[in-house]
Design goal:
By secondary structure, the chain is an all-alpha fold. The protein has a domain of about 160 residues: Growth Hormone, Chain: A. The chain is about 70% helix and about 0% strand. The chain is built from ten helices and two strands. The chain has a two-stranded antiparallel ribbon with strand order 1-2. The protein starts with a helix and ends in a 12-residue tail after the last helix.
């Protein structure tokens, strides 16, 4: 019995430390919001996918294959915005980190809240590209900023990798029974993020018919909760840890 207690104390002392921006519940909140953002642009802002670009490339390919070049280039706009958002999310964190006030991760979530709030005031009669570019920027920066949840590579803006990881986990259960518990836990985490994205998408599809352009404000709710946790850590619990980079960066 004493040996078991000592092992537990050893594991506790040597457990990997993760910043708040790497905690799993932060990724759940971000994924829930991303599901709403994706369905918002698809349902109300021109039928494009803001979360990832595979769907847009597929639509562009179909348009080009049918000889509809003007329609094909339409999907080049979100694709370009996604690239530019990734570039910015690589450059800005260094400058923000040197300020030693708040982390880039926290600032990004704050930026998302402000931008989504502004988009809610844009009538649906405005060109769809305005909202598309803004949300593509946000999704690409979020995807490139939040990379690992407690040491496990995860995406917050799309679910393809989560589906893949569930398949890998099931295969490990079949091949290596001694890894069954770990594989089950990993599959459960990826499955919960898929569910969060799905719930966000279903809710946005339902509410968009009633709230129209302002329905994007519902995506701000999980982001606001996320922002409170991150800001509290930056100002109190992790104030002296600005030089520590999140895993995967």
């Amino acid at each position: 019995m004493e040996k078991i207690i000592n092992i537990e104390k050893h594991n506790e002392l040597h457990r990997e430390f993760y910043l708040t921006c790497e905690k799993y519940y932060i990724f759940e909140l971000l994924t829930l919001s991303a599901g709403m953002m994706g369905l918002y642009t698809y349902n109300l802002r021109g039928g494009v996918f803001s979360n990832a670009q595979t769907g847009n490339i597929v639509k562009m390919s179909v348009a080009f294959g049918e000889g509809n070049f003007s329609g094909g280039f339409y999907y080049f706009i979100p694709f370009t915005a996604y690239i530019l958002g990734t570039i910015l999310s690589e450059i800005l964190p260094v400058k923000v980190r040197h300020s030693h006030f708040i982390r880039w991760d926290t600032m990004l979530v704050g930026i998302e809240i402000v931008v989504l709030f502004a988009i809610g005031f844009m009538p649906l009669s405005w060109p769809d590209q305005i909202a598309q570019v803004l949300i593509n920027f946000l999704c690409s920066m979020q995807f490139n900023t939040f990379r690992q949840a407690e040491g496990v590579p995860m995406a917050t803006t799309f679910v393809t990798n989560h589906v893949r990881q569930i398949g890998i986990s099931i295969a490990r259960v079949i091949k290596h029974h001694e890894q069954e518990h770990e594989a089950r836990q990993k599959a459960l985490k990826h499955g919960k993020l898929i569910l969060a994205f799905f719930i966000g998408g279903v809710f946005m599809t339902f509410i968009s018919d009633y709230c129209l352009e302002k329905s994007i404000w519902f995506a701000i709710i999980p982001l606001s909760v996320c922002f409170i946790f991150l800001l509290r850590s930056d100002l109190i619990y992790e104030k002296a840890m600005f030089d520590i980079k999140p895993h995967g960066h």
